[in-house]
Design a protein that fits this description.
The structure holds two protein chains of two kinds. By secondary structure, chain A is α+β, with helices and mostly antiparallel strands. Chain A folds into three domains: 81 residues, no CATH class; 193 residues; 104 residues, Calycin beta-barrel core domain (Lipocalin, Beta Barrel). Helices cover 46% and strands 16% of the residues of chain A. Chain A has an eight-stranded antiparallel beta barrel. Chain A is elongated and about 90 Å long. The termini of chain A are far apart. Chain B is of the alpha+beta class. Chain B is 18% helix and 17% strand. Chain B has a four-stranded mixed sheet, covered by helices on one side. In chain B, a hairpin with a 4-residue loop joins β1 and β2. The two termini of chain B are 37 Å apart. Classes of the chains: A alpha+beta, B alpha+beta.
Chain lengths: 404, 168
């Protein structure tokens, strides 16, 4: 119980309007993690001590919380002789973690349903060699390419989330969440996605909710016997005032949780990220002419300085693909008034300013700029990347359809 | 012990604040073919989750209080020349991650953020007072305040700290 509560309150993230308690404890726990890592574990090589997903700091923090929780639990059992309130505490703790788990499943579930988590692959990814991609971005892109499966995966998370909120369906919700989260943890481990600790923690929560029912589940599924009603404390509301207070409180909490999760989508009016308008000039461009100091560079594999394609990423990046099919990314600002494209080399801070001229009638983009005293002139034509086979949403029900 | 669902409900709401920030930062970085050398854990890109929160300015109010001015983007659907800010807000931090860091360190970690009132490394060494860095306090929202608005706490009295405390 101590570990779960400490883990939840010690890490920050701004929600839409629910208070971000973690931000006030973050500096304390990060300081503690750094001290523990440096002095107790004596880690010599540089590491990320900040408490962000799957950082070394978060692993140290988890270990630290386990130790603190073990000590607190020991002290609690020695000092506290009265144990008559334990059943009530256990009940409310179970309710709390059920709501917490439901909240997380709502966040991730709606993020999938509205297609924000697994977004449509960007053109530079679509034109990258599969072998050159990491497993994480490849998995993300494959999921992002299928609208129906992403929505389905989101619904699979939303179903247990709703069931966890009600006493009658809580166990079934926890069992469903367990099945879903085992798959999520395995995906995160197998595809090397950096949410391993959080997904494992959520899986642990589902186990904690299921645990008191394990004997009954065993009786039911393996012995084919009737289940025995668990002797545990549940609140009973005798007066109508108390009943209505309980109902109103519960409804308000569920409403607030859903509002916190859903408000950003309503504000953005974005319920399918695949259909959101992309920024100006976004897309893939095949270079037709590449001129340096009035010398036209031919499209040969032996030309190290010629580009083959370039891409404008929706998050404000210009990605150049060399003739050897290597990608280089630059943050880009596009000024439509001056018709300028300003590329920045992140490590050196060097800027390359292109004057651009876009002909929408034939999708031709002309760039003129100066880089280290060399004049560069590029003529490129936009590629219809949406027509690539990966983004074809047609489902072929027979093998004959594949080739027609 | 009396059953107090309202109390537990409020406690639950208070504790429901955790999420990890970097859920898909590495993937977001890889999505624009970013290389390991340019990956920054403090960058705002978090492609997988909405909204995206960016810290624009951090003001050093006193040795224990910082005000961060942030913006949240819920959509980039209409941007052309500049990013459209749909919401702007302030957050008050009390002994936060910024504590004890020099201007150079902060600028390196968060290159797109403007830091006001922070000392450079050489200035910081001259004014260093080890007692200032000892305490950390959790700060909870004031019960009377609206959600997302926090009352600034009074910092621990420090003889060397003459900076007036800004009240909310």
């Amino acid at each position: 119980m101590c570990f779960v509560l400490l883990f939840i309150i010690s890490l920050p993230f701004p929600n839409t309007f629910i208070p971000n308690v973690g931000s006030y404890l973050q500096s304390f726990f990060e300081g503690l993690t750094k001290w523990f890592g440096d002095n107790i574990l004596q880690i010599q090589q540089p590491y990320t001590h900040q408490l962000i997903s799957d950082s070394t700091g978060l692993y140290i923090h988890t270990l630290l919380l386990l130790l603190i929780s073990a000590m607190l639990s020991l002290m609690w059992s020695i000092l506290d002789k009265k144990q008559d309130y334990y059943p009530k505490l256990q009940y409310w703790f179970r309710v709390f973690i059920s709501y917490y788990l439901a909240f997380q499943l709502f966040k991730y579930g709606f993020n999938k349903v509205f297609k924000l988590q697994f977004y449509l692959p960007e053109p530079n990814i679509l034109y990258s060699n599969v072998g050159s991609l990491g497993r994480d971005i490849l998995y993300w892109s494959v999921m992002g390419a299928s609208y129906s499966y992403t929505v389905f995966a989101g619904i699979l998370e939303l179903i247990p989330a709703f069931m966890l909120l009600f006493r009658r369906t809580r166990l079934l919700g926890a069992l469903t969440a367990f099945a879903v989260l085992v798959n999520v943890v395995m995906i995160n481990v197998s595809f090397d996605i950096s949410v391993k600790i959080l997904s494992s923690f959520l899986l642990l929560l589902s186990v904690v909710i299921i645990l008191p029912n394990v004997p009954n589940l065993y009786r039911f599924f393996f012995l084919q016997k009737e289940t025995i009603k668990l002797q545990r404390w549940t609140p009973s509301f005798t007066t109508s005032k108390k009943i209505w207070t309980y109902r109103i409180t519960k409804t308000s909490i569920i409403f607030l949780l859903l509002l916190d999760v859903l408000l950003p989508y309503f504000k953005a009016q974005n319920f399918n990220d695949d259909l959101v308008e992309r920024p100006f000039l976004h897309g893939a461009y095949e270079i037709q002419t590449f001129v340096v100091n009035q010398d036209t560079i031919p499209p040969l594999l032996t030309e190290p300085n010629r580009w083959k394609r370039f891409f404008i990423h929706r998050e404000g990046y210009f990605i150049a693909e060399t003739m050897q099919e290597e990608m280089a990314d630059f943050p880009v600002q596009i000024n439509t008034n001056l018709e300028q494209m300003i590329l920045k080399e992140e490590l050196s801070g060097q800027e390359l300013i292109f004057q651009y001229n876009y002909h929408s009638s034939d999708s031709l983009l002309i760039l003129d700029g100066i880089l280290q005293n060399d004049t560069i002139h590029i003529e490129a034509r936009q590629i219809n990347w949406q027509q690539l086979p990966l983004l074809d949403r047609k489902t072929n029900w027979t093998i004959d359809d594949y080739f027609h | 012990m009396k059953t107090r669902p309202t109390f537990f409900a409020l406690l639950s709401l208070l504790l429901f604040s955790f999420q990890l920030q970097a859920q898909t930062k590495i993937i977001a970085h890889k999505s624009h073919s970013g290389k390991a050398g340019t990956f920054n854990i403090f960058s705002a890109h978090n492609f997988g989750l909405a909204p995206i929160v960016t810290t624009d300015t951090v003001i050093h109010v006193s040795d224990s209080i910082f005000v961060a001015i942030m913006h949240e983007e819920f959509s980039k659907s209409n941007w052309r020349d500049t990013v459209r800010y749909t919401e702007k807000n302030k957050r008050y931090y009390y002994r936060h991650i910024y504590l004890g860091k020099s201007l150079e360190e902060l600028e390196e970690e968060m290159p797109n953020t403007v830091f006001i009132g922070f000392e450079r490394k050489d200035e910081q060494n001259q004014n260093f007072n080890p007692r200032q860095n000892i305490y950390f306090y959790p700060q909870f929202p004031n019960q009377n305040s609206k959600p997302d608005y926090f009352h600034l706490p009074q910092p621990r009295q420090n003889k060397n700290d003459q900076t007036p405390v800004k009240k909310n």
